[in-house]
Amino acid sequence: MSAAFLINPYSSGGGKKGKRLAKVLAAAGQQNVVMLEDFSKLTDILREFARQGVTALFISSGDGTVQAVQSVLAEEDIFDENPALALIPHGTTNMDAMTLGLGLRNPDEIAAFAGDLSQAKRTKRHTVRVVNPADGRTRHGMFVGTGALRNAVEFTQNAMNKNNIRGGLAPLATLITFVTNYLFSGGKSSIVRPHQMRAEVDGAELLEGEHVAFFVSTLERLVLRARPYWGSETSEMKVLSVAYPPPAVLRYIGPLMWGFPNRNLPESCRSASAEYVEVSGAGKWVIDGEFFEAPDDEPLRLELGTEFTYLQAP
């Protein structure tokens, strides 16, 4: 396999980890290393990789850059066969890499791994395809959410990341802040508030009315190792909705997020698998840490997207 590296020098902490990796790669003789300093040039960079016959693409970044790369690869005819992706968690949020990542953090080990990919493990996973966002730019990510989940990401970026609270500490701090704020405000929270929406799953109505949170994902685990899915799993794409007002927070947050001691959740919490979802009413969304808006004149359509192969250390 022919390997190339794409490094976002503006990732978490000014891209220090990615820049350190680039130095190690240069010392190891790896020449196909590109700094992604301008996202408008991403397509041209990928076209050059295709011209060179790259079959393994290492991405040093966070979730947002991975989403951008996957979107271009999925929507544009660049490679005859898309390269396998090796995700290196060098961003502010690295939820994709938690499940699908390379599994190596030491730059020397990464360089050695790229030099011999014969023993690499391969995991396949589909994206969530956002078909019709308001700006018309189709996206392919692994987590798409609205309501409190979208608000939580915005809060994490503005209140946590800017104060240098990053990695796993940031979502944990956000969760603690939200729960405390909600409990001591009598349920009057600027984050946990009602959103009127309607959602259909594979053509059948799933919900209608006021909801506090809604998301779709193809990841096995989310931040804080959460796995808020239950019931039948007929598709990689999982759906979660929580009606407003949310159930007793302290009682149900454990069963909802991690399934312990058991799910035993009220009817206001619903989970499903789907090939496609259409959502009306919710205007503001987040996909892998990046924000976008739904169309005004039709439901937002989310569907099972492109399947990619992810490289992992044995």
Could you explain how this protein is built, in words?
With 314 residues, this protein is of the alpha+beta class. Helix content is 28%, strand content 31%. It contains eight helices and 15 strands. The strands form two sheets. Strands 5, 6, 7, 8, 9, 10, 11, 12, 13, 14 and 15 form an eleven-stranded antiparallel beta sheet that branches. Strands 2-1-3-4 form a four-stranded parallel beta sheet, with helices on both faces.
What descriptive keywords fit this protein?
alpha+beta; eleven-stranded antiparallel sheet; 8 helices; 15 strands
Write the layout of secondary structure elements.
Blueprint: E1 3-7, H1 16-27, E2 33-35, H2 42-51, E3 56-61, H3 63-75, E4 84-89, H4 95-100, H5 107-115, E5 121-130, E6 139-141, E7 143-147, H6 148-160, H7 169-184, E8 195-201, E9 204-217, E10 238-243, H8 249-257, E11 269-273, E12 276-280, E13 284-287, E14 290-293, E15 300-312
Parallel strand pairs: 1-2, 1-3, 3-4
Antiparallel strand pairs: 5-6, 5-15, 7-9, 7-13, 8-9, 8-12, 9-10, 10-11, 12-15, 13-14
